[in-house]
Structures are given as C-alpha cells and as structure tokens.
Design a protein that fits this description.
Elements (H helix, E strand, L loop, with lengths): L2 H57 L3 H55 L2 H6 L1
Helix pairs in contact: 1-2
C-alpha cells in the first residue's frame, strides 16, 4: 500500500465515519423529538384534568357526587397515562432497535476496513 492509497483510505474512512455519526445524530434527534412530544401531551392532559376538576367543583352541589366525578376524571387520566407510557415504551424499543442496527453496521464496516488493511501474508499466516 503506497502513500496515495493510504491517504485515499483515510479520506474514505473519515467520510464513512461522518455519515455514520450523522445517522446516530438522526436517531437521537428523532427519539428526543418523540419523547418531548409525549411529555408535552402528558403535561397537557394534566392541565386539562386540573381544569375539569375545577369545573366539577364549581358545578356540583353534593359531596358524594363531587367525589364520584373526581374519581371518574382521575380514572380517565390514569388510563391516558397508561396509554402514553405504552407509547413511550414503543418509542424506546424502536430506538433500541435503531441503535442496535447502527452498531452492527459499524462493526461490519470496521471488519471490512480491517480486512482491507490487513496484508495478504498476515491473512495466510492466520
């Protein structure tokens, strides 16, 4: 391998590494965006529940009716939060799969590059 071949290989490797890091950044950004959106949905639901509870309090005359309505609102919020948690788990599972694919692609690329650099004599000796 002469000097020009070495420079070409280093340049190619640098470009491939840059592309790989951009892919990782895209995975992170996409996951972050989805998780932030889910967090905003949760906060919105909590604020809506607070507003509903306040409305119930001003419109209800009997205590037992108030407790019943508040329990219904709390149950509804709980169901929404459980659903939101399941969606978060789906996001995290998808992100884990994307990370795994990224790592496997990087390992395959590194193996390929190592095989290109390893002299034929060393391969035969092994």
């Amino acid at each position: 391998m002469n000097f020009d071949d070495t420079i070409d290989m280093v340049s190619k490797t640098a470009n491939e590494n840059y592309t790989s890091l951009r892919k990782l950044a895209e995975i992170n950004l996409n996951s972050w965006d989805q998780l932030v959106n889910k967090q905003m949905e949760v906060m919105k639901r909590c604020f809506e529940t607070t507003a509903k509870t306040a409305e119930i309090g001003k419109d209800t005359k009997r205590v037992d009716e108030l407790f019943s309505k508040q329990a219904d609102v709390a149950r509804e919020l709980g169901e929404q939060l459980v659903e939101g948690n399941q969606q978060v788990m789906n996001i995290l599972n998808k992100t884990r799969e994307e990370y795994q694919a990224w790592v496997e692609a990087g390992a395959a690329k590194a193996k390929s590059q190592l095989e290109q650099v390893t002299p034929a004599k060393t391969k035969k000796a092994a």
